[in-house]
Structure formats: structure tokens, C-alpha cells
Amino acid sequence: MADTARDPPPEHTDFHELEDGEDLFPEQTGTLESEPASLAAEDISTNSNGPKQDSLFDDDPEDLFAEATEEVSLDSPERDVLLSDGPSPAITPITPPCSVITPRIGLAHDDMFTHSSFDEIEEEEGGDSFDMHISVSDPEKVGDGMNAYMAYKVSIKTSMSLFKSREFSVKRRFSDFLGLHSKLASKYLHIGYIVPPAPEKSIVGMTKVKVGKEDQSSNEFVEKRRSALERYLMRTVKHPILLKDPDVLQFLESSELPRAVSTQALSSAGLLRMVNKAAEAVNKMTIKMNESDAWFEEKQQHFENLDVQLRKLHASVESLVCHRKELSVNTAQFAKSAAMLGNSEDHTALSRALSQLAEVEEKIDQLHQDQANADFYFFSELLGDYVRLITAVKGVFDHRMKTWQKWQDTQMLLQKKREAEAKLLFNNKPDKLQQAKDEIKELELKVQLGERDFEQISKTIRKEVSRFEKERVKDFKTIIIKYLESLVQTQQQLIKYWDAFLPEAKAIS
Amino acid sequence: MMEEVNEVTSSLSVHGHNIKVTEVLKDGDTLTFLVVSQKLSGTGEYHVDRTYDDFEWLQQHLFSQEDVPGIQGVIFPSLPAKAQVNASAKAMKQLGFLGLGEWLPYCKALESFLRQIVAHSILGKNKAVEILLTSSDPPGRQRVKKNIFNRLSQAVEERRKEGHKDVDEFFQSERVRNLVLTGCAKTAAERFLDVVQSEQKIAVACGHFSASLHLCVEPGEDPDKQAFSKVCVKLSEVFDSMKKNMTSVAENNMNTLGLGLDMESRCQEAEKEMLFRRTCKLVELETARRNAEKAKPLKKAAMEEEKKAAETEFDHICGVAKQEVARFKAARVEMLQQALVQWCEKQLLTAKETADQFNQHLQAFRGMA
């Protein structure tokens, strides 16, 4: 049961992603299988185990690839070991002789394996509908000083057969979440899946917590983070493909999780930077894509607009939250002054009424604070999440462009090689001819793959966007209903308070 | 106590308790107020246009009734500071609640000023009152002579007298109480003003959010797009409701308790001024007594005369003041009670209406497939 459910995302051998400035075809022109897959430019993690990859991050002196020494196949029992510190093997065997790869004759070069098996997964699991509830709770400070960190309890309740138990929990720290995200991003972003972004890192916020300031702002920070982590996990598991990813499952179930390396670079802010850099690079390459599909053009514009609107709404809500908090402070101040007035008053009944007034105002202040929290945690964070999600969406569209570009480039190269071959024929150089023919064969396959990659990513994006749009509506509705419930509750409390105060006011004389 | 007949007595031809200041018109830089009063006989009404200067004219007349014995013991109804179109920020701050709400609270304050005057046993008899309320011509802009009541003219040295120890326990304790209450009331009014201004800001923010949501409406036949657009439109309605609610809450606050606290603050100030005048008179009296004692035989008689006059005047003032303090206490309790009851009733009503509205929105969202 569990085994079939855990069909790993298939290894693919030569899914070769470009880094900025990197040559389309590195020197090694061996067999396809021996070409290392490399990272999406957006991926910041240590998931590349290709040799001679320059570190993308000047600020990270650590040799990211020091441990990238082992060959792995996804079916290999070493898998679990290698999911630890270091590159995730989920994508890449390093120097895979064919034997290591699950032999699927004829599909050895088939990167579509990646996608078609995902399709299978989606269709397969039709019976097990999504039923999962994750909560992140009990933030606990572990350690002291600048090495301290917050550990969070992640509790899962589910009836899905995907999991070993129905209710279980694990302890995770923030960098674990970042590590999970980076792995997912490196596996799925470049093939068109919208991977939910992880919560932002915050040096200031975390430092306060580490230093041990037990004040309201650091409590607020921890709560904000806890909530963000919860939403992040829920979004991730709601994705039918991501849910079944072994990294996700390990994250949710494993009692011990090896520390994610170099999370400085893994933050979603860093991801955002990378995405933006990639986007800029795409623009610089002046990809004038012959968009044959109007759908994509329209959707890209749609997301641009949505981005602008959501940011505006987000700013609006932030302002509302700010004013609400100000109202709370002012109400508390007024309550105090009303109390003083009541104390100084010598008319007994009036004095009592004024003291009651002060109490009512204090209670109303609490309502304001609760409402400000509702404003924030429901709307502000929702909108913030979606602004970040759209960044991921845009990234996925950019990947498609790059995939297209790669395909086109391969085609051009093939053309060149063909011309070169023709020349060789003309000049009658039989020894070089064979090599040329081999190269051409290789390129022809590559072109095919390039085209299929492009078609596949386009197909995936269409599905993902459709899913995104549906989820968006559901998400917003759910949050809005919760928010309205909070509004109704506030009003009902207010009614109670006023009802209680009225006789006091009337009793003054 | 008040045997002498006041030369300027007249009986008012209108009711005092239902005087209304119903409208305010902006004429360039001037604000004109419409004062409506009901005739005592019959069912007629007087409608007169008055500017702030006219109210001040009345106030000056009341202040200058020097021949009314003990007039300085009167706690004069407080006239708000001058309202101006395009007032400076400082002026608006000074006005506090009265500067808000399109001058409606200000009109209420003027109303209260007039009603208190008419109801006052001494002040209501002044002819100027009738003129202000009923004369079709504005009372004229002639400046009445400056009088001792104008606090601004009181020299700085006089302020020292404020702390002068009293001879009467009643007044000593009243002065202390008044000092505390004046401070408390002023602070409470200012802080409540901050509350109202925050509420107004929230209303504006909700309005912005509501408007921005309309920009998210996407045309097209895509069912997902339509679903999202529908969500945006409905949410926009929710925030509209929130805006209306906050606006009502702020208005309720402003027009009832806000106004009440403002009045209380100004009334305590008025009492403070009266007590101060009395204290000054006390100082004068004590000086006169000392002078009479120390006087050389030549001046003795004159000093004795002065001493007697001072004593009489002081007695009159104390008599009036005692009555005034009692009246004042009862009046302010009643005023505050009314303010609190109205405030609570209005907020209760608003809360109920809003709860209904929010509930409707909630049901609508739940029902949205």
C-alpha cells in the first residue's frame, strides 16, 4: 500500500537546466546518460550534484558539493541516507551508468517520464480524496544565545492511506521548512509546478527571540511565524503531486530530520531574488518567444495585473491593521482617563457609572485588539501569501520560456551541425564524418526532447494555473467566512457590553 | 439676597428649553447659525440668523451686569471658542469635538449655551437675551466695554491668587474638587477625541479597501475568474458595511459622549473662573480689612467704608456662588447622565444593526457554492 503510493518522482538523467551565462552544452559530450542534470537557476539549495558547478552564491563559502559523491537511484536503498545533509538525490544520479537507472528500455532518455508518471500518480490515487489537517503549534525555544532556535510541533491528522498513522506529530525548526521548500523548488519549479513559497526569514525578529526578549513584539513575531508555517504546509500538502513527494513525507513523518544546509540561501527572500534574477536574465536574453498559444500570453498578463492589485490590497489592509491598533491604544488611554474621572467624582451614582464606563472601554479595547489580529491574520497574511505565490507562478512561466529557448537553441545547433556535415561530405573527410553523424543523431534526439519538454511544461502549467485559480477562490472564501464570523462575534460582544452598561447609565439619578 | 430690582430685567417671550440651533451656513469665511425658538404664547416660532460675534455680544452683556449684586458668583454658561471656516490646525485642536462633524456638535454647544442662559434665574432676565433670540436684526457688532470677566485681561500677578487659602470650608473643598475634575474632564475629552479620530481613519481605510476590490473584478467567461470576481464584489460589500459601521460608531461617540465630555470640561472651567473671581474678591476683602485696621485716623473712615463695601460684595458673591455650585452640580450630573444614556442607546442600536448586516454577509458567503 504505502509502497505503491510512494512512487518516487522518477529520476531523469539529463534534464539540463541552464545557469546564467552557462554554456548550453558543456564540454562533456558523452552519452546522454552521463550528463549531469543541473539546477534550475532558481534553485538555491545543494541539490546539484553535477561536477564543476560553480557555486551560485558568493556569500556561501561552504563547498556545497563536498558530499555529492554517491551514485543514487531513486530505488536504491541508500535513498534515505542521502536525503540527509546534502544534495537530494531525487533528481540526479551523478554518473549514472544505465544499470543504476531503473531500466525502462527506450525511456532512458525520456524526461517525459517525469511528467507522465506524475499524471499517473494523480489519476491513480482517485480513491483517496484529500483529507488532512496540519497544525503548527507549541513554539519552544531550544538552546541559548545566538545558537538558539525555535522548535515547532507539527501535528498531522489524516485518514489518507498515504500515511502510516492517523495522528502523529514531529518537531521541526524553521530551517527544516526552508530546506523542504528548497528541495521541492529544485525538483518541481522548472517543470512547471507552482511550488508554494516558504515563509520569509527575518533576522531582526529571530534575533530578538534568540536574545531572550520575552516581550510582546517577539511573541507576536513567533505567532506570525507559526501561522505562516502552518499555512505553508497546508498549501504544500494540498498539492496532489507535492503531497506524495518523499521529501514531504519524510518531513511530516520522520522523527529526526537532518539539518538543512546553508539555509541562509534557502529563504524565500533568496528564492525571490533568484527568480527575479532569472527573470531579468530571461529578459536580457531577449527571448522573443513566438507565442503560438494565446492562452499563455493572456495568463501572463492576468498574473501581472493580479500581482499589482493584490499588492495594493495588501497595502490597504496593512493600513487598516495599523489604524485598528492605534484605536486600541487610544481606547485603553481613554479607559484610564474615564477611570480617573470616576474616582474623582463625588456623586456616587455618577462615579459608579464612570467606573463602569472605564471597564466597558477596556473590554472594547480587547475587542479592537482581537479585530486587529483578525484583520492581520486573515487578510493581510492571505494577501501576502498570494503575492508571494504569484511570484512562484511567474517563475514557472519564465521556466517555460527558458525551456522553449533551450529547444530553439538546440534546433539551431542541429542546423549548424547539419551544415557542417554537408561541408565535410563535400570536402570528403570520412573520418570526421562519422563523428558529425553521431553528433547529429544526438542533437536530433535532443531536439525531440526539447520539444517534448516544452509541450509538457506548457501542459503542466495549464493544469497548475487552473488548480491555482480554483484554490484561490476556495482560499479566499474560507478566509472571508472566518473573518465574517469574527466580525459577527465582535458585534455580539459589543451588544452584550452596551446592554449591561445601559441600566448603569440610567441609574445615575 | 437680591432685593434690588435689576434695571435690565425683562421677561422672555420664548421658551428656553427647546431653543434650537438648526443650521449652519458658510458665507465665505463666516459661519452663520440659524436660531429657532418657540413663542411662549401661541404656536409661532422665531427664526434668526446669528454669527459668532452675536453670541459674543450676548456674553459680554451678561458679563457686564455690574449692578446685579453678586453677579461675580455666577457660573456663566460656557461659550465655545470661535468657529472658523478654514481654521488653523491649532484652532481646530482647541475646538476638539466641536470642530468635527461639519459643525453639528458646535451647533449643539451653542444651543446648550442659549438654553442654560434662558434657564438661569439671573442671566435669563437680561434684555440682551430677548434681543438675540427674537430680533430680526442682528444685535449689532458694537463692542461692549471690556469687563472684569475677561480672563485674558487678568494680569499674571493675579494668577497667584488662585492658591489663596479660603476662609470657608465649603469653598475650599469645592476649589480642590474643581481643580481635579477640570483636569480629568479635559484629559478624558481629549482622549476620547483620539478614539473618534482613529475610528474615522478606520472608516476611510475600509472605504479604500472596498474600492480597491472592485479593481480585482476580471471580465471574461472563465468560471474560475467569475467566481473570484464574485468573491471580490461581495467582499467589497462587506468592507462597505464595515465603513458604514465605523462611521456611525464615530458619529455616535462624537454627538453624545464626546459632546458631553466637552461640555463637562468647559463647565468645570466656568466654575473654576467663578471660584477664582470669588477668591480674588476674598483677597481684596482681606486687603481692605488690613487697610482699615492700619489706617491713619484721617483715612480711617474712608477705609472703613471700603471695607464695608467689600464685605457686602463678598457676601453677595458667596451667597450667589453657593446657590450656583448646587445648581451646577445637579446640572452637570444630569447632563452627563443624558450623554451616557444617549451614547449607550445609540451604540447599542448601531451594534444591533451592524450585527444583522454582518450576519447577512456571512450567510451570503456560506451560501456561495
Can you characterise this structure?
The complex is a heterodimer of chains A (509) and B (369). Chain A has twelve helices and three strands; from the N terminus they run αααβββααααααααα. With 509 residues, chain A is mainly alpha-helical. The longest helix of chain A is centred in the last third of the chain and has 80 residues, at 348-427. Chain A is elongated, with a radius of gyration of 29 Å. The model of chain A is unreliable at 1-116 (pLDDT under 50). Chain B has 369 residues and is mainly α. Chain B folds into two domains: 1-151, PX Domain, CATH 3.30.1520.10; 154-168 and 176-369, Arfaptin homology (AH) domain/BAR domain (Substrate Binding Domain Of Dnak, Chain:A, Domain 2). Chain B has helices at residues 52-63, 89-95, 104-119, 127-134, 156-159, 169-214, 223-294, 297-367, and strands spanning 20-27, 30-38, 45-51. In chain B, strands 1-2-3 form a three-stranded antiparallel sheet. The termini of chain B are far apart. The interface between A and B is large, with 55 and 57 residues. Chain B: Belongs to the sorting nexin family. Chain B: It comes from Zoarces viviparus. Chain B: GO terms for molecular function: phosphatidylinositol binding. Chain B: Keywords: Protein transport, Transport. Chain B: This is PX domain-containing protein.
